[in-house]
Every structure is written in C-alpha cells, then in structure tokens.
C-alpha cells in the first residue's frame, strides 16, 4: 500500500500549497491552469505517451469527462468555500466517499461483506468526528448547490479513475496525458474568461505556485491509479484508505503547521479513521 501513502502525501501537500497561495492572494484559477500544464509536460517527459491515440469511443468518453471535471471541481470547491465555509466544503468532499463505495459495490460488483460494511460505518463516523468544528464564515450566504457539486464531482472522479485503472488497451499514462491536455484547455479558458470579463490580472509569480501544485497533483493521481491497479478486486479499500489518510494527515498538518485547534471530537475521529482502515485491510 505504499502507493496509497504516496498519493496521500501528494494530496495533502497540494492543499498546503493552495492554502499558502490563498494567504498570499494568488489567483487560484491561474494556479490550477498552470498546474495542468506542469502535469502534462511532466507526464510527457517521464513516460512519453501518445496524444490522441486510437481508442474506443467509451474510453474517450471517460477521458473527456475527467478532463472537464478535474479543473471544474477545483472551481466548485473554491465557490463552496466562499459561500458555505471551509468546514461544510470539507464534509461534502469527504462524503463523496459514499458515491465511491456505492460504485464499488454496485457498478464494479465488489463483494459486500460484514467487515466492509462495518468499516464503512466507522469511516463515516470518523468523518463526522474529525470535521467537527465551527466555521468562521458566519456572514457568508449558504449556497448548497456548490456543496452538492463538490460531493458529486469528487465521487464521480474517484469512480472514473477506478474505471481508468481497469483499461488494458492503452497504458494509463497515455490516458492521463489526454486527461491533462483536456483539463489544461478547460482551465486556461476559465483564466482567459477571468482576465477579460472580470479584469483579473495575470501574475507571473503564480507560475511557480502552479508548477509546484502540478508536480504534486501529478504524483497524487499517478500513485492513486497505481494503488487501484495493485488492488483491482477491492477498490473500496483504496477509496476509504485514501479518504481517511487525507483526513488524518490533513488534520495533523492543520494543527502543527497552521496552528489550528483540535477538539476532543477531532481526536476521536482520527482514532476511528485508523480503526476503519485496519478493519478494511482485514476484510481484504
């Protein structure tokens, strides 16, 4: 499960960089756009994949949807934070785990066992306890559609990456390259719109932020798919381990790096998360 650990580290580091970027008033849209450029060229240099290969229509459909969703969900996440606060957005993102697990059981026909159901129940309790904190965004208008888009977006992305990991007609690095290419086109369209319609200025220092996020984002996706390939018949283990690992490490980083306060409920959530991961490993 070394791939899961590496993916968790990259995922949390992306959050850390984005948080510092926000504190320094950098454009998140420009960082996201530059990030996909970096991921695209990094994948090209390391694996030399083919752009626009001859593949089945259904595979192209998955690639296209992922390419559209990846940058858009970043935007939905930012909107949800602006209108509903960080806490509600975090809960929505982590509860996307429900869609991932239902997909594993009903679309990928994974066997349902008592231990898996127990692990899922404890994992959901861990999410509730770990994210039990009060938002400071008391004066923001709550717009639940953005929260629903975050939940649905992350859940669908998880399921589609699982499906991508099962495709054998092409190397997954080739599929990733085409996903990154579509994502960077979508992201730069958003940046151009922001510059022309919203008078947002382009900041060249943002490129450095975007490059760092791109390297970490590439690592996160790469190791995540490798993890699914290593455990093909038990995707729920990867789904829950990834989500719980991000919650645990993210909580610790928030406490010791950003000096965020943890309640007793948060500590209970961390313990429950570890217990849930252990039970899911037993279920394998």
UniProtKB/TrEMBL annotation:
Residues 2-131 form the EamA domain. SUPFAM superfamilies: Multidrug resistance efflux transporter EmrE. GO terms for cellular component: plasma membrane. The keyword Cell membrane applies. It is found in: Cell membrane. Keywords: Cell membrane, Membrane, Transmembrane, Transmembrane helix. Its main location: membrane. It is a multi-pass membrane protein. Coiled coil: none annotated. InterPro entries: AA-Vitamin_Transporters, EamA_dom, EmrE-like. The keyword Transmembrane helix applies. It comes from the Bacteria. The chain crosses the membrane at residues 6-21, 28-47, 59-79, 91-108, 114-132, 144-162, 174-195, 207-225, 237-258, 265-283. This is Glucose uptake protein GlcU.
């Amino acid at each position: 499960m070394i791939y899961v650990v590496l993916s968790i580290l990259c995922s949390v580091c992306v959050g850390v960089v984005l948080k510092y970027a926000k504190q320094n008033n950098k454009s998140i849209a420009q960082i996201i756009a530059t990030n996909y450029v970096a991921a695209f060229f990094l994948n090209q240099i390391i694996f030399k994949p083919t752009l626009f290969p001859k593949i089945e229509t259904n595979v192209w459909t998955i690639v296209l949807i992922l390419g559209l969703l990846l940058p858009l969900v970043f935007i939905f996440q930012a909107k949800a934070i602006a209108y509903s606060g960080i806490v509600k957005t975090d809960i929505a993102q982590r509860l996307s785990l429900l869609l991932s697990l239902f997909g594993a059981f009903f679309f990928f026909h994974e066997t349902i066992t008592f231990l898996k159901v127990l692990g899922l129940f404890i994992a959901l309790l861990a999410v509730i306890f770990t994210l039990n904190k009060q938002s400071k965004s008391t004066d923001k208008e709550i717009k639940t559609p953005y929260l629903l888009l975050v939940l649905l977006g992350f859940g669908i992305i998880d399921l589609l990456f699982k499906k991508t990991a099962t495709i054998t007609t092409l190397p997954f690095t080739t599929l990733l390259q085409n996903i990154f290419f579509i994502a960077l086109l979508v992201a730069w369209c958003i940046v151009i719109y922001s510059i022309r319609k919203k008078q947002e200025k382009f900041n060249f220092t943002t490129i450095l932020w975007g490059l760092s996020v791109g390297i970490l984002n590439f690592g996160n996706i790469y190791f995540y798919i490798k993890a699914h390939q290593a455990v093909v018949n038990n995707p729920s283990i990867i789904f829950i381990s990834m989500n719980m690992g991000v919650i645990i490490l993210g909580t610790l980083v928030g406490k010791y790096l950003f000096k965020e306060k943890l309640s007793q409920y948060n500590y209970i959530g961390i313990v429950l998360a570890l217990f849930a991961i252990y039970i899911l490993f037993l279920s394998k």
